[in-house]
TrEMBL record:
InterPro entries found in the cross-reference section: Carotenoid_Oase
Keywords: Iron, Metal-binding, Oxidoreductase
Cofactor comment text: Binds 1 Fe(2+) ion per subunit.
Protein name: Carotenoid isomerooxygenase isoform X2
Record-level Gene Ontology MF annotations: beta-carotene 15,15'-dioxygenase activity; carotenoid dioxygenase activity; metal ion binding
Amino acid sequence: MDPHYYTGCRSVILMHFIRYRIKDGNVTYQCRFIRSEAYKKNWEAKRIVFNEFGTQAVPDPCHNLLKRLTTFFNPERFLTDNSNISIYPFQDEIYSISETVYAHKINATTLECEERKDIRDIIPLVVHHSSHPHVAEDGTVYTSALSVGLLGTTHHIVCFNKPENGEKSMFDTARIVASVPAPWPLNPSYMHTFGISDNYFVMIQQPFSVSITGLVTALVVNRPTSSALRWYEKEQTIITLINRTTDQKEDFYTSSFFYLHIINQFEITDEYLVIDVCCYKNPDFVNCMFTENLLNAQMNPCFAKMARNKPQRFIVPLTKFKKQSFNKETQSSSGNLIHLDNSLCEAYLQRDGRIILSPEDLCGLSCETPQIYYKKYSGKPYRYFYAIGADVATENPGLIIKVDTVEKDCKTWCEKNCYPSEPIFFPRPNAQEEDDGVLMSSLLWGEEQWNKIGLIILDAKSLKELGRAEFTTPSPAPKCLHGWFIPD
């Protein structure tokens, strides 16, 4: 199997931490390998000894089939600990995380890995947690996780509180606060992220799943993790809401789609919950990211189509959560359950009690790695989000996009042969408006400028450039995927 963009081993792009520091009008740039156990063991063996997302390990000539089977009962021997997707604060500590059971504590000054955490030390049955936790205003962290038991698989919401009573770190406080059995027990939905509003947890269970039997097979015959992914196009996507107070759970249904990122989610009084998502028609985008497909992209007429998505809005009527009785016969004949001005979203109650949702598009551009004014508007009514372009067929595919979700229009920034990373919003001191601040994005250049990297700062209102810093590196500069702004 070819190495994959998400792998972070043979494709070393995601094995780095990148740090820009802005102080006294100057900008410095640092880049460092993640010193994970997988990295160290691969380096020592001079070969890949862990199966990664899209890269298979080089077989150990001393291991026969029986040896590989016994390895399955010693996860340390085959579970990679590469935490190569995102960076999040846990109180005053910074951790790098990905979709494994591990997280690495990072020194924000030196970028050294100081400690490795394993969520199984607190919650033993967990085999995966999300790459995108949510950080509440008080510093509490929530993430989604998956556990495997005798009766199948279960999705969880895990909470990390501020440590007290002698606990050393937030990881020691991990506890499950909500659980949802997977609708397909041996094929749990791949869940890169989840949502949280004032009163609800939001889980989007897409029919892009991880086959448990496929994972076992991958170990036995030495295949990468990606070989266990399955797409069930005829299944519907299930949007599950969990009341954070009562634990009441309700499922809502829509046509199948693939997603990686939820833009935001928020409640409108006690009548509706709005969920904005970057939606793909199918998961072909994942296949686009294999190295061979990237190298041959210009010779594949279907490549651009596979990478396109739509930022879409779903509105969930909260009727089922109301205390009064819910008359299915009456409601099923009442038409669209969404009664909001300037909304094209639909929700229809079926006679079997299911509510079917139909979304509306938020803009005409493909968007990825969406960001908002997170600290103030995460889980709250908001207007703007920022993203990078996901359409590689445009004249300038390296776009930074600002979307107005009220007017359903957008602004863009681009520079020829330049490719930005996820734009991170930081507000102006004492800002009164949602978009009063700046966007920060790491830049790469194509063609012959492979060793050039930079940081650009844009006015968040107009997307006009306010300043930039550029650096020349001694080797190819790695591309950023996700980041976090940490004030000094």
